[in-house]
Design brief:
Number of strands: 2
Largest sheet: 2 strands, antiparallel
Strand order of the largest sheet: 1-2
Distance between the termini: 32 Å
Helix content: 55-70%
Oligomer: single chain
Shape: globular
């Protein structure tokens, strides 16, 4: 999913990108009013534009729309309110619950968007080196980087297996949700077996190369903290501080006692 582009975001220090994207996820989580959350979404889209990955987000619009729709409905069960809009037996939809559910769905979608932007502008090598320089144990940094590196492989493998099964007459496009759920298993099992096989091959490959987690290592990735990194830190921290300040002063929340 990483795209090697010459953008402002790609040129930042790996440590800056790791910390800034992690801190940025706090901005939408600090608010539960959909109007304010949409304001944070505009900032996230601006970062996506600077990173040159807006087309990636556009390709995933169906996924985001589905998540927002489903979560908005589900949150009605856990979001009480005082202004009743619709009452049907024991089921009651309130204005506050509807707005809170929509905001919660938007927050979830924004966190996914931030993660998508992150993996689009940070290579696995940068992730590994950045985590090590942030005093994360090398084994954990290596496992995290490998997981991100293998993710596109698993997605491609799943698509190939799905096409191969459709060529053999297997149809997984039933309109019945329960039937579609059962039709997922013929795809999950081969992908899981492929993952186990790849893990075994990687283990043998690392052992053949004398991999030692505690050994000192050099890296082709050179870390340098510049003015652009300082500006990125200041911008992200200011945005999060603004969101927290608004929340503590009674703004940006439909239901004050709910996160």
């Amino acid at each position: 999913m990483y795209r090697d582009l010459n953008t402002v975001v790609h040129g930042l220090d790996p440590r800056t990108k790791l910390i800034c994207f992690l801190v940025l996820t706090l901005a939408p989580l600090a608010l539960n009013d959909p109007l304010y959350v949409l304001g944070v979404g505009v900032v996230v889209l601006g970062i996506a534009w600077l990173a040159g990955c807006t087309d990636t987000l556009v390709r995933l619009w169906r996924v985001y729309l589905l998540l927002i729709g489903v979560n908005t409905v589900l949150w009605q069960l856990y979001s009480p309110g005082t202004t009743t809009l619709v009452a049907w037996g024991p089921v009651e939809i309130t204005r506050e619950g509807l707005l809170f559910g929509f905001a919660a769905s938007l927050r979830f979608a924004l966190v996914l968007m931030i993660g998508t932007i992150f993996v689009s502008c940070v290579s696995t090598e940068e992730i590994s080196v950045g985590l090590v320089h942030l005093k994360v144990p090398y084994v954990i940094a290596f496992l995290f980087a490998m997981a991100l590196r293998l993710l596109p492989t698993f997605i491609t493998t799943g698509q190939i297996i799905s096409e191969a099964q459709r060529a053999r007459g297997f149809e997984a496009t039933s309109q019945n949700p329960l039937r579609r759920l059962t039709q997922v298993f013929p795809l999950i099992i081969p992908v899981t077996m492929y993952g186990l096989r790849q893990a075994a091959k990687m283990s043998l490959s690392l052992e053949a190369r004398g991999f030692r987690p505690g050994a000192r290592r050099s890296s082709l990735v050179r870390l340098s903290f510049t003015r652009a990194d300082a500006l990125a830190f200041a911008t992200v921290l200011s945005l999060v501080a603004l969101c927290l300040a608004m929340r503590f002063n009674g703004y940006g929340a439909v239901i004050q006692d709910r996160i």
